[in-house]
Amino acid sequence: MPIDLNVRISSSEKLGEFEDMAGRLGITGIAPSTELDKPIVVSRKGLVLYSRANLQGKRIHSLRKELGLLRRCAVIVAFPLAGMETSNWAAEDHRVDLLTLGADNIGSTLKDSTAHMAKHSGTALEIQFTAILHSTGLNRSRVLKGFREATRTALDAGMKIVLSSGASHPIHMRSPMAMTYIGLMLGMNRVDSREAVLNTPQRIVERNERKLSSEFVGPGVEIVKRGRNHEKD
Amino acid sequence: MKKTRKRYLQFTLHRNGAEITEKQFSSAIWSSFLSLYGEIYAADSKFYLNSYDAKKGTGILQCNAAALEKVIASAVMISSIGATRVSFEPKKVSGTIRGLS
């Protein structure tokens, strides 16, 4: 079940075009950054839309507040790699799913220590490859350098990686097979690349679907069966 | 001279605009390959566009087995050809053309 965890749809009218393209490419789910009525919505064409929230705060205090509000209503919570302090906080917090590296923060670097923390909390590194599509020459070289270095750091630390498009136009989306070749270009092997495109996004979505369900109580505690109200004799 | 192993790739070129000719598409792959991997790898790739249907956007390309990953990555990285925005989708890889059908 291939899922693109980052699609930038500017308005709900454009959703149809993304649905068509996803269908043609064999993508079954997308996480648009636009607001959805519910955390998980199935469109008329059968595409599953997962709500995604990008943390905007600049300081840890405001980020904590924001995260508390968003976690219960979004399937995917992402934080763009930025300063060391905030990146470490996001990497350590198990409620944050993705540390994002894309066109907006291409100069940011993933530190070894951050990657190790992320490994333990289950936070994955998200690489948005449209930054490569939109750049040329020396700029593209810089983008590739940033992505390849972050990929190597994440792999060395055992941190999970997610490859997503970050597409603002349907034609910028790529098929799952095409995305695995982008992974190879970024320095992953075949297994890691397939994992980054197919398995890791699905696992993150499944984990959060469980958390958002009414049966979830806390990590490791779920309601498996509801009994009738106990009546006093 | 040592014989190199070939690979054939079936693909679809999705587009948002005017048709892309075989020549335009082939040149776009060459220039993307040159930009990403340089002249030495491009020379060794033995890339060749076997068949291409401009209307449907489907076709088969061939290259050296060792260069396959690089050829596909170069094609995937093409975002537009002329004024037409495109998305390259690799479909199936085989050692023979027959294997693709």
How much helical structure, as a percent, in the residues of chain A? 40-55%
Strand order of the largest sheet of chain B: 2-3-1-5-4
Query: Quick one: overall form of chain B?
Result: globular
Largest sheet of chain B: 5 strands, antiparallel
- Percent range for helical residues of chain B? 25-40%
> Low-confidence segments of chain A, ≥5 residues, pLDDT <50?
none
Which class of secondary structure composition applies to the elements of chain A?
alpha/beta
Structural class of chain B: alpha+beta
Level-1 CATH class name of chain B: Alpha Beta
What is the name of the CATH class of the domain at 55-200 in chain A? Alpha Beta
Give the strand line-up of the largest sheet of chain A: 5-6-7-8-9
Q: Determine the number of helices of chain A (DSSP H or I, runs of at least 4 residues).
A: 8
User: What is the gyration radius of chain B calculated from CA atoms?
Assistant: 13 Å
**Strand/helix succession of chain A:** EHEEEEHEHEHEHHEHHEE
Q: Any idea of the CATH topology of the domain at 55-200 in chain A?
A: TIM Barrel
- The CATH architecture name of the domain at 55-200 in chain A reads Alpha-Beta Barrel
**Total DSSP E strands of chain B:** 5
User: At the fourth CATH level, what is the homologous superfamily of chain B?
Assistant: Ribonuclease P, Pop5 subunit
What is the mean predicted local confidence, pLDDT of chain A?
90
Oligomer kind: heterodimer
